[in-house]
Amino acid sequence: MATRLVRFINVSIATLVLLTSVAVYWFALRPLPKVSGQLAAPVTGPATVKRDALGVPHIEASSWQDAIFLQGFATAQDRLWQMDGLRRYGSGELAEVFGASAIQQDKRSRAMRMRALAEAGLRRLTPEERAVFVEYARGVNHFIDTHRGGYSLEFSLPGHAYEPRPWTPTDSIVIGLVMYRQLTDSAASDLERGAIKAIATDPVKMKVLFPPLQGGEVNPGSNAWTVSGAHTADGKPMLANDTHLEYGIPPTWHMVHLKAPGLDVSGCALPGVPGVIIGHNDQIAWGVTNLETDVMDLYLERIDLNTGRYLYQGRAEQAQLDRELIAVRGAKPVSMPVWVTRHGPVIGTENGRAYSMRWTANDDFSFPFWQIDRARNWSEFRSAVARFWGPPQNFVYADQAGNIAYQAAGRVPVRRGFDGDVPLDGASGKFEWAGYIPFEQLPTVFNPASGIVATSNQNVFPPAYPYAISGGFADPYRVNQVRALLSAKAKLEVPDMLAVQKDVYSAYDQFLARQVVSVYSRRGDNEDMLRDSIAILRNWNGQMEKDQAAPMITQLLSNRLKSALVLSLLPAPGGQTAVIPPIFPRSLVVQELLQQRPSGWVPANDWDAWILGNLKTALEEGRSLQGSHVSSWRWGSLQQWKFAHPVGKQLPLVDRYFDIGPVEMSGSGTTIKQTTRTLGPSERMVVDLGDLDKSVLNLTTGESGFVASGHYKDQWPSYYVGKSFPMQFQAIDAKEILRVRPQNVSK
After folding, report:
1. Beta-strand relationship, 284-290 and 278-281
2. pTM to 2 decimal places
3. What does the buried/exposed string (b/e) look like for 197-211 if buried means 16 or more CB atoms within 10 Å of the residue's CB?
C-alpha cells in the first residue's frame, strides 16, 4: 500500500512538472520573437536586423521606408503588449480588456478626446511624415498578422485574453499624445491650488508659497547637458541626457538603430512611435528635458450639462456634443456624453462645478523627429524643432563640427493679465489666450563662452522676457550641481558624465541640516533622540544615500515644515482640525523663508522654536517608522521602487518573475539623480562626438517585454549602480542576425 502511494505521489509530481513545463513552453517560450535566420517580408530590398548583447535591433535597409517598416516590426516583436496597452490607455479602451475596474481611466481619456486629437493630428502631418507613420504601421501589422496565436503571455492570461487589432498611424499618434499628457497635464494641481486659494486666509502668503512660476513639489522632468571640446579629453563635444519619468516594466523607451540611405540614427524610441526621439546620428546628437511651461488651463463653466448651453460674456452659446461609448469586458457598454465648449471639452465636475480644459494639444500637432533624425547641422536641427508643437521641450544639441547649443521649442500660450495656475472664470471672457509665443522669441543659445549648456527643468526665461510665463519650473538645485560638477574637472570623459548623472547631493537637504544644527546650538535641549539626530547631521555631506540616516531626518523635517506652512493658510486655528490639501510648496520657497525669516509667519515670530518643534515632530514620526535609534535609520527604507508588471503583479507565485523589487533607492527630488517613490531616470545616455562608439546608453530594466526573454530585465543590475553599456553604432557586435528578404523572392 505504501509503495503504491509513493508511486502515485511520484507520478503526480512528474505529471505536474510536465504540465507546468508544457505551459511554460507554450505560453512563455514559444512566443519569443525570431531574431535570427531568414524572414520574408513586404520590403523592397534585402535588409538585416542585428541584435547586440542587449537585444537592441540595429536595422540596415536599402530604403528609409524599409527601415521604418522593420522598426515597427522589431518593436512589435519586443513590446507589442505594451504598445497595445498604451494605445488603449490613450484612446480610452482599457475596459474592453480589463473590465469595469478601468472605466474611470477610460472616461478621463475620452473626456480629453485623445483619439479625436490623434485623428486630427494625422491630417496635419506633411505627406512624408504621414508616410513614415504608414510604414511603421505596416511593420507592426506584419508582426501581428504573422503571429496569430503566438503573442506574448499577457495576451493569453485567463480573464484578460484577447488578440490585438490591426495597427494604424493614428495609434502611434495617440501614444505620442500620452507622453504629451504625461508631461503637461496640470489639471489636478490647478484644482488643488484653486481649493487652497479659495479658503486661504492670507492672499499674500498664498502667492509666496505657491508662485505661478512653480508647480508641484516634483514633476516629471529630466537632465540634459552638453560641453564643448574645451572641456573634454578628446577635444570634441559630449552630450548627456537622462529623462525622469514614472518608472515601470516594461520601461518607457525602446533602444533602436536605423540605417538606410540618408538615415543613420541611434537612440531611444517610444514603443509604438516611429523614429528616434533622443539620440544621435553620424553628425549630431540631441537630448531633451521638459520645458515645464503651463500649456493647460481649466475654466469654470456656467453650463447646463443636460443641454450643453453655457454662458460666455453674457450670451448663451451651444457646446458641441460628442457621444462616447466605452466597451466593458463582461458588462454592457457605458455611454458617455462629452460637451465641447469654446475653451475645450468639459473634463469633469468638482463639487457641482463643471470644468472645461484648454490644452495646446487641442490646437495642432507636428512630428519633427523625422527631420531631426536626419539633420546634419545646427541650422537643419533648429529648422526641424521650429515646427515642434509640444509638449514644450528644452532641446540640447552638439555636433561633429564642435558646436553646442540650446533651443526651447513647442507652443507656449500668451496670457495677458492672468496666470493659469488655478481654474479660471470661463464665462467672463477675461482669461483667453492671445495666441502663442513666436518660435523666434523662445530662448536659444549657440556656442556659449562657458562651453557648457545645461537644463534640469529650471526656468530658462530671462527676467525681462516680453511675455508673462507660468509653469512648474524646477528649483535650481539640480542644474547648479550639474554645472558645478562639469566645471570641477578640466578634461571630461564618458565615465565623468555618468558620474554626474548618478550624483545624489542635495544642496537643499544640506541647508536644512545646517539650519537645525545652528538652531540646536542656540536653543536645543538634551533629549536623546534630538541630540543623536544633531550629531548625525552635523558632519553630514548632503549625499542622499539610501543607507544613511541623515537624508531621512531632513526629508521628514521638510515634509513637516511644508505641511505647517500650508496649514498656516487655512482657517482652522492651530491647524488641528484642518485637512491638509495634497499639494506643498517647493523646496526653494521653504529655504528662502528660513533664510529671510519674515514676520507674521510663525507663532511669536520665533523661527528657532518653530523649526525645533517641527524637528521634534519629524523625529517622532521617524521613531514610529524605524525605532528610536536614529543612527540605524535608513533613507532607502522610505524610498523604495517596486517594478510591478501591470498584469504579472496579479499572478501569485509567478509575479516575482515579472516584477523587480522592492529595492531601496538613493537620491531625492532635488538631486541630479532625481528620484522619488514614483519616478526617476528612465534612461541614461552619454554621446561622445569624438568617437561615437564610446557613447553609452542604458534603460531601467531591459529591451524586451517578454518575461521569458533574457533581455526582460538584464539592464537593471547595471542601471541600479550607475553603470552603462556601449551604444554600438559603427562597430556592431551582433549576437543574432535576422536576414530579411522581399516576399516572393527565392533565397
Report:
1. antiparallel
2. 0.93
3. beebeeeebbebbbb
